[in-house]
Fold these 2 entries.
Entry 1:
Amino acid sequence: MLLVTGASGHLGSLIHAGLAERGLAPLAGTRTPGRFADAGRTMDFDDPAGPDLTGVRVLVLVSAGYGEDDVVLARHDRVVSAAERHGVQHVVYTSLVGAGDHLAFALAHRWTERRLRESRLSWTILRNGLYAELFGQLAAPVGGAVTAPFGTGAVAAVARQDLADAAVRVAADPAAHRDRTYELTGPVAFTAAGLAAELGVPYHPVSLGERRAALVGPDLLPFQPAMLMSIYSATAAGFLAETRDDLAGLLSRPPRDPVPVAVAAAGAGA
Ligand SMILES: NC(=O)c1ccc[n+]([C@@H]2O[C@H](COP(=O)([O-])OP(=O)(O)OC[C@H]3O[C@@H](n4cnc5c(N)ncnc54)[C@H](OP(=O)(O)O)[C@@H]3O)[C@@H](O)[C@H]2O)c1
């Protein structure tokens, strides 16, 4: 049996749907199993008892990365421990691209990768690049201009659907990808200035300090400003620009152009 965690999230739902389309009848691991009729299994990684992975052969572990590092490490440790306990054969983990090591949320991904490598499970690590959708949302115009502090740095952002398609291919044939790590970037790197031009608005980036000062409000959790600021900094410093061809190899086709995906997300958020 195949099980996808985070199945009602953006990435997990696409992976779940892709596996279902292939007739692989995936189970949906989620905190809201009611959404998945008979094919849902309650899965809250914050439950100290750990998730029930009985009968699961292949586990697609979508990172549950919103939280302080100690929270995320504990979540992922519970899942890997449960996978070992329940005899799961293969774990496909959605991680973070190697070029993202400067991002504030990189540590939890690298820790989870190490936990898997040192486990007795077989695994595949999908190091996902920054979502084009997220880059677009962060670059959405404010007051008629793109003001996000991305500097002149480019991002090899990638469409979430392509990352889901890659995960589906790996989960459908895990033996072919045993103990492999893939760097999944978009096919081109593009800038916030380029995005602004596509949107037909000027690019007037504020400073990092101005942006940080604006990150206040009841909707922001304490760990979020550091995460967001690290995306601006790493981009502006040029760390996220590297493109790799692992994704095309996994998909057996060219990846989607991430620019229109980011433009659509920026337009929706404007
Ligand atoms: N590469 C990038 O640009 C990027 C950007 C943002 C985040 N991420 C990472 O990629 C993951 C997937 O992205 P996404 O866009 O699909 O995020 P998302 O829509 O927020 O989905 C994340 C899902 O993780 C599951 N989850 C959260 N806390 C959990 C817990 N305590 N126990 C079990 N499941 C939990 C939830 O699934 P259910 O609702 O089904 O329970 C949630 O919907 C994120 O969680 C994050 O780690 C990557």
Note: Residues 138 and 238 are 17 Å apart (CA to CA).
Entry 2:
Amino acid sequence: MMTVHTDDMRTDDLRTDDMRYEALKDRKGAVGLNFILAVLSTGIFCRPGCPARRPLRKNCVFYETAALALKAGYRPCKRCHPLGGQRAALESLMQEIYANPEADWSAKALEEKGLAPTTLRRQFKAHTGFGLGAFIRWVRLGQAAQSLTQGETVIMAQLDAGFDSPSGFRAAFGDMFGQAPARIKFDEQNPLCVAWHETPMGRMVSIADETALYMLEFTNRVKMLAQVKRLHRLHNRPILVGRTVISEHIEDELKRYFKGELKQFETPLVLTGTDFQKQTWAQLCAIPYGETRSYAQLAMAVGNEKAVRAVASSNAKNGLALIVPCHRVIAKDGSLGGYAGGVERKSALLSLETNNL
Ligand SMILES: [Zn+2]
């Protein structure tokens, strides 16, 4: 629990540029923070933990990703290499946890592996969408749910998952799956799979089975634990790390979309929400590539011009970034309004589309 809360607060702490600038003061603490600092006076962009001197506030511009800073015309810093990736390292760590979730993954154990726990936790969250602790707990409980489905006893599943107390196990299990350990019966033939995708606007994460896509989000914005819990409750199926035909399909479509070649996603979708949300999403999908609508126009299209706020809220909750194109909804006065994936990204997506009309 602790890790999740800490990570979430961390994200909220960096909502505004002033908060981001403030976070740069503590250089060691800034290593691995999830944004890019560009410097107007030098035209260079850096990781937050760059050893170079902290620029004046008025010279700082902040971006969600290195790709966006690059696109805006800044050059990468030669000291902190903001384009270089930690991805391979994180991927192998993820595999290691997956193979051995009950091992000791405490800060102390990570330090003994030569890793810096605080930095690692931030990077892990930014690249996967999961807090490190949340990921480990999710993997442990998922494996417990699978062995229970296969007929394992609750006490054995509890011990295998690394829980000393039955009540602690029951509580964590109930929180993850919405049901008691003794009752779980996964549809094992139909797992959902989590996969990651690189895009020029940052890494994305998808959840798919062999026939449809259930979720697609930017990793640095998504609350993965909430997403997997939601899907566990709705579908009662194992959720694993892996790729399906649909993961490959969406990856291919993303590549073509970011090249400006694809105007209409065709990956089959499963959208889960209230009737009103589904109506809103259907209207969103009807906004053509490269065009925008206001929240008020969208509310009108849904048949209730007073429902602007409800429409905006459904808009943000669709769980399928880019495909249900909520980035095409802007404020009435023509300004960008909000975006779950970050306003800089929204602006970049809209330029990508208008440039390829
Ligand atoms: Zn630098």
Note: The chain is about 45% helix and 10% strand.
